[in-house]
Amino acid sequence: MWRAEEPLTICAKVLRDPMNPYACGQKLTAVGLRPPGIWNLDITMSPQAPLPEDPLAVLRERLRDLYLYAGEPSSRTLAKQTGAMSHSTAHGVIRCVSLPRWGNLELVVEALKGDVTEFKALWIAAHNARSQRETTVHPEDAQEPVLDPSHEQEELYRPVGGSPAEGHSGAVWSVAFHPNGHILASGGGDGTVRLWDTMTGKPWREPLLGHTGAVVAVAFHPDGNLVASGGSDKTVRLWNIDRPHPARELHGHTGTVWSVTFHPNGHILASGGIDGTVRLWDTTTGTPLRESLIDHDGAGWALAFNVDGRLLANGGDDGMVRLWSATSGQPVREPLVGHSGAVVTVAFHPDGHLLASGGDDETVRLWDPVTGCATGDPFIGHIGPVRSVAFHPGADLMASAGDDGLVRLWHLDSGKPAGRPLDGHTGPVRAIAFHPHGQLLATAGADRKVRLWKSAQPPDYEALFRRIDYLHARLRRLTS
C-alpha cells in the first residue's frame, strides 16, 4: 500500500486536458490520505515500473486511471453521456474484464474526455494479442465447440401476422424503408417498384412502372419525397412517390445498375453498375456531377455513404471494398482486402465507426473505415453467398441474408449469432432492411415475397432517442 511520506508518480498519457494530474511526468503525492478503493494497489507504480505484459491489462489500467480522474460517474450517467448505449454496456466497458468493442470503448473515452488516439493504440494491441491467442490451438482444447442452447432458442424477431406481401411476379431484389418508417419500397424482377404500408402490409399505392427490365436496387431520399431505382435496363430512375411516373430518367451506365444510395444531404445520388463504374448524380437536375469512378475489375455491386456523407464505400467483383471521398471523387486509402469472392453488399453502422461487407465467399466482415483494418474475425454461418447486410439503428446487432434462404442476426460485440435464424423464405433472400426505429425488419427474396418481422423485445425509445440525439450532435461537429 502507499505510504503518505512517499510520492507516487503515475505515467498514464490518457487525457487531452493539460491540467490532468495523471499526464506523463506529473506527480500525484498522497499526503496522509488513503486512496479510494479503486486504487487499492499492492505495489508502488512509477515511470520505471514495468507495465503488465498483458495488453488487455494495460488497457484496463489506463481506463481505470481515466475513469477515476473523471470522477467515477455512475454507469447510468456515463451511458447517458455517450448517448448510444445502455448502462450495462457502459459498466462492462469500464470494467474491461474482456476486450470491449472499439466503438463502445471510443464512446466511453470521448464521454470521459480521454485521448481516443491513445486508447485506439492500446485497444489494437489487446485485440492483436487476443487474435494470436485464439489462433494458437492446444491439443487439450481441440474438441467440438459447445453451443449455448439459450442463444439457439432465443427469438429476436417474429413474423408479422398475416400473409407476406405479395404482388411482384418475379424475384424481389431490394427493399428500403421510408425515413418515417410507414412505407416500404421494393424492387422486383417484374420491372416494378412497389410501395407498401408497413402498418397493414397492403400496397400503399399502385406500382411505379417505367423500367423495361428487372429492378434490382431501390433507395429513399432522406426527406422521403423521392425514391430511386436502378435496373437491368441500365437506367437509374427518380420517382416522386405521390406520382405514377418517374421524375427523372438517368442514363450513363452500360450495364445493369446494381446499387443506388442517397448522400445524407439528399443532393447527391450514387449508382453502381455491372460495368464496373460508380456514378454520382445531382438529384435536382439529374446531371452527372463528375466523371464516373472506375476502379474495379468487374462489377461495382454495392454502395453506401457513411453518416456524414464524406465517405462512399463500394464493393466489387474483385473481392475488394474501396472507400472514396464524396467530395473529390478520389480513393481515400488502399482497398480493404479480405474477401475471396465478389463483394455484393456493404453497409455503414449508423454512427459511422464500422463498415460491414458480405459476398460470394459466404462471410460477413467488419472494417474500421478510419484505419482500413478488419475488426475481429469474419462472421461465418451462411451456406452460400451473402446478399445483404444491415445494422440495427439502436442496438449492437447486425443482420445478414443469403442464398441459403436464411436471415441471420449477429452480436457485434462477440461476432456470435444472436438468436435463431429467420427462415420464412422458400428461396434465396436477396435483401434486408431495418425500420428506422429497429422494431421491424423487412426481408425479400427469390420467392417473390416481401416479409415483415417484428422485434420480440419491447422498444427502448429512450435509448433510441438518446442515440439519435448523439448522432445528430456528432454530425453537426463533423460538418461544422
From TrEMBL:
The keyword Repeat applies. Gene3D superfamilies: YVTN repeat-like/Quinoprotein amine dehydrogenase. InterPro entries: WD40/YVTN_repeat-like_dom_sf, WD40_PAC1, WD40_repeat_CS, WD40_repeat_dom_sf, WD40_rpt. PROSITE patterns: WD_REPEATS_1, WD_REPEATS_2, WD_REPEATS_REGION. CDD domains: WD40. Keywords: Repeat, WD repeat. Pfam families: WD40. The keyword Heme does not apply. This is WD40 repeat domain-containing protein.
